[in-house]
Amino acid sequence: MRQAVKEHLLLSYRRPLSSAASLDSIYDVAIIGGGMVGSALACALGRSPVTEELRVLVVDKVPLPEISAPGADPPELRVSTLTPASVRLFEESGAWDSMAPPRSAAFRHMQVWDHGGNGCVRYSAATVGLPVMGYVAENRVIQAALGQTLRSRRSVVDYVSPASLQTLTLPAYAPDLHSGMQSNELAEIGLDSGQTVRARLVVGADGSRSRVRELADLRTFSWSYHQRGIVATVRTQHPNDTAWQRFLRTGPLALLPVRGSYSNVVWSTSVAEAGRLQALTPQAFALEVNQALQGGCMPARNPLLPGASSDSFIPPPTVYAADGAASQQSFPLALLGSGRYVRPRLALVGDAAHVVHPLAGQGVNLGFADVGQLAAALAHAVETGRDIGDLGLLQEMYEAPRQSENARMMTALDSLKRVFAPQDGLLASLRGLGLDLLNGSGVIKRQIMRYAMGVA
Amino acid sequence: MSMGAALSSSRGVHTSRRTHDVPQPSAAGTSAAAAQGPAGQSMDAQEVAKFEAMASEWWDPDGPNGALHTMNPLRTQFARDAICLAHGREARTVQPLRDLSVLDVGCGGGLFSEALARLGADVTGVDTSATAISVAATHAQADPAVASRTHYQNATAEQLQQQGAHFDAVVASEVIEHVSNVPEFCASLVALTRPGGSIVVSTINRTNRSYAVAIVGAEQIMGLLPKGTHQWERFITPEELQEHIERAGAERIGDSGMVMNPFTGHWTFSADKAVNYIMSFRKPAEQQRNP
Lengths: 456, 291
Fold this sequence. Notes:
Chain B: Pathway: Cofactor biosynthesis; ubiquinone biosynthesis. The structure holds 2 protein chains of 2 kinds. By secondary structure, chain A is an alpha+beta fold.
């Protein structure tokens, strides 16, 4: 037994980041969940000289992935669209170089059109004077790049895995009662290893089924779209630099460049249709994708809006099965929001606070924007001698700005989703007219584009 | 003892008496409140009693000291910059006040003291209210980093002066408008400062506007403050403050108005010093004889 303990200690000393054996008793920030958003926060605290010395604990079930050479292998299924705003956060945090092309792919155009041939809108980065509209990167690549930055911050960041949160004790908080003096006790987290540590701020970055949110008793609202999203890796003949999105009768289908000539398909559809598509061979699935992208009617000149439509339409590329790639998978589509993002000594970030429809690839970018805002709030706190777990600070400088921004995006995506819900006839025509109007109106189009790119 | 953010409300106190409208001499030792607090103070005894009654609400951001909570980051920033300037340090770094001793006169529940301690300072907080000192000491215990850098005493500036204490910086925020002998109080602040050290004072100006905001608005119309919380006649203009401190042997470095947006509660620096203002001084490195 003693031998085993000794070996464990020895092993822990060889590990790149601290193990459970050497935890501090108090951390400034304890991040539960070391996924993309949690790791991004631990990295982002390093971008400001006032927060770079904060002691940070990251708790996750899995170890940080090692960074690998720009892959020749087919990319993994789970990818994220990164807006220029997210890229800027990574640049400032020192993590971008390890996820930039050729590890990821830039896209310079975005084309949205519908199945009925009623409308088309095409965006180009050049329209707003930027070199790219965004990037698409495998989650694994983002995670590994952030992991590398975290390793460079090992003097202040402890990453403990495999570990999970068992208990969470926060200061007493009764928002409805006028309780006089507020408790300012530090938060305490208990891990499955039996260890407990205290923290000035606990951050829940543990995803849509957040254990932190549950333990903190924060209420959520949610609804299901009764649809599933199918993801798959496909190949095109030539590298692709456009994010393609077509609204089908059953829901939207997106084709995103990932790396080299690999692209990623995100296809939202009915539960039954998703089951059928998921069971297909990669080759049969690729044929279905081509049918969906190229079938139906290509945009014609809109009789209601002569001269505005279809001029810029470009036919999407043909896709092929990607040999050696994982077969297509599916996931349920839902919207979820937490009524509150903060409590004394607690903040939720990313999917723990909000889950949106994957329609515009905004989900994880909202999480990265949470990270940028929270890191700035903590920098302000450190500079002015405020307690980083102070409820007033977290409300004013993190929750209020993020909640209104996230709500805007959730509402926009939800209504877009509803407008483009499976339908025919008049509504579809009106939708097509909307797209055409959008394409014709430079100002609105640029605004929407800048907003979606996170530069507005 | 800090209280004077002009719009801070005071639900806890309903029976405070109006004190004399003219500043009293510092012989507070005979009054009732001084009997339970330290003797030899320039703090007015009835002022002490007022704050004693509301001490338990120091850390309630929605309580009577709400405006102090919202003002705290701003005055901390001002004090940080002034102290760093006097001590040749960079202000926007981690713990810019590390290893500097700071005295917070009239520390109340410790709002300002804790903020300065987080910036690295070794803070001594003194207040004439024993309850406030007890609240401050208890509050600091929650975080060892704060507890180790804050020391609270139920004492007056004058008492510390008699003990021969010296500090790298002395702050007195929202307190001078409640003391009975302002010149003596200012002399104590300067005497407690090491040569080369800095002094930061924030208070309310004596103008028509401050009368309208702090007395008519906050006390009589809005009922935000109990009547008698402030005596407008005791408010000190920036010119008077500067004169008192300079006479005691320190020179003015800078000042700023502080303005609260009544709708958002957000405080900002401003050239407008008609209501709340903050001023910093430096005691010359060469020891000077105080008048």
